[in-house]
Specification:
Chain A is an alpha+beta fold.
Chain lengths: ~350, ~350
Amino acid sequence: MTSERKGIDPEKLTDFTLRVLNKAGIPEGDAKIAAQILVATDLRGIDSHGVGHLAMYVRNIRSGRTNPDPKTKITSNAASTAVMDGDRGFGLVVGYRAMTEAMRRAEETGAGFVTVRNSSHYGAGGNYAMMALPRDMIGISMTVGGMGMVAPGSVGQGVTINVLSVAAPSNQEAPFVLDMATTVVAAGKIEIAAREGKSLPEGWAVDKEGKPITDPRQFYQGGALLPMGGSPQTGSYKGFGLAVAVDILCRILSGAVPDQQYGGSHFFGALRIDGFMPVDQFRKAMDGMIQQYRELPKAPGIDRIYISGEVEQEIEKKRRAEGIPLHPAIIKSLEDIANELGVEYDL
Amino acid sequence: MTSERKGIDPEKLTDFTLRVLNKAGIPEGDAKIAAQILVATDLRGIDSHGVGHLAMYVRNIRSGRTNPDPKTKITSNAASTAVMDGDRGFGLVVGYRAMTEAMRRAEETGAGFVTVRNSSHYGAGGNYAMMALPRDMIGISMTVGGMGMVAPGSVGQGVTINVLSVAAPSNQEAPFVLDMATTVVAAGKIEIAAREGKSLPEGWAVDKEGKPITDPRQFYQGGALLPMGGSPQTGSYKGFGLAVAVDILCRILSGAVPDQQYGGSHFFGALRIDGFMPVDQFRKAMDGMIQQYRELPKAPGIDRIYISGEVEQEIEKKRRAEGIPLHPAIIKSLEDIANELGVEYDL
């Protein structure tokens, strides 16, 4: 063990998470899907979106905000496209079903797109885009997040923190997995800084008057995250534009607005690679591209150039071998949920 | 006329551009399509991508680099997806054909995607995404551009300047049209600053050693544009990741690599709105969203919050009324091409 934190076995963590979700009211099959998604997120080092959110999810189920057993419904007027009503279900379960439906349609026509309304927080967007990889497809996943971004020219939180993810398979190299918020950083990074008492780098957030801040506490006092690009001069209208594009595909195209103003809305897409070209050729060309970028001249002090998804794959290898080093605050939250629900804590 | 420059009639400019392209060897129908795209770009105020490039296009045709009469070829293994070989054609003509094909497939299945290899510079990406608007579709357009971006952790130009565009129709409001390079700014902005002898804002570009620059001349001495996001701390890996995603869809999925390393490769998509929901409902919800963003609290000194596409629509209204105020250097270049080709200059 090289980590100072205890490495938790991913299988045991999945089983524990499954039991918690199941006890909270989610049917076993769905609980298993959600547990696997959450632990996969932690395995890949995206600590802000893994089992650290389990307490929040359970709270939302127990308060009645999230429907633990949703009757999701699909409507469609075309072979390649559909809308899913998530029936206020758990976002990880609804997202899994919707991406599965997008891939089913892509099997038939080459492309499948499903937009989703009435869902809830779906965790890390990359998980759904990555579902396409073993199916030899390119995967797309988007979601509308909670309020938190300032629009260029505005002050305060007026735009949701949206997420865009694209995944494409390679051959020997790590698959390409882009998973990004349309803000400079995800809100989870502010949470982590606040929890650890650290200050924020400049360029992440502003206070309620639009002035730059480095104290994470000011974010929670009417502050906001900047759009990707930072200031208008360095392209914040692009980050805002991407956020609105995600809004359109998730909230408008699914019929979530005006009735369901800021609820969980997602958008999923799948493109079957062999609808365009032979899969082997594609995977090998991906390897070639990744290697070409890796071989670019390095800036002083840089050992390696990383393509989206490579760092996460390295972390996953390490964590599969050594366990997942959960933050003590997260371990505490898991113990608390276990106690609250009467589930055995065995991690 | 409020502009100090002479406003050129868009009809006359289209006719002139058509005649120049036709004289250079492009068949009349294709020349008309390309002329309309170029003038539409100038009408929308995207001066870096309109008729200012005409001389370059003609040069590429006359040197044999661009095929003026391409026999574009479509291959496909699925109803919703296809690959187009552009036969080294003029990007504006190839792009128009490929987007038309994507929309034809979207008519049938709800979604259509066409990736393109062996094309050339296709102008402003928004033009093709906007072709979807009158068809009640959401349009997507991407292209690989010329070398010019530095990868995070690298020095020098190692990544192409890629472009991503999304367009969606509204009702009374301007349509949403996002049209962005995955760099902090498009290379055209550096060209304009160099031409006008102005310095660059900080955060746009670096010199050959990776140090920030404000002198546009240093960009042309081994410098590079920064990815959207600027530095790794403020999300440059997102801009790089978006650039690679565009690479994958344009160059890898079309089979452009490894044979055609950095030639013109594009990607087009169309989603038929009524495959998801009623078009009227969508358009009205778009208006509602745009109005909601417009009504956000304004920062001091800000009169209005703009959504992607609104500024361009305002410029278009003005230019349709007052003519297009081309830069004197561009007018000179048009006169020179007219002389060179023996085409009457009547602007």
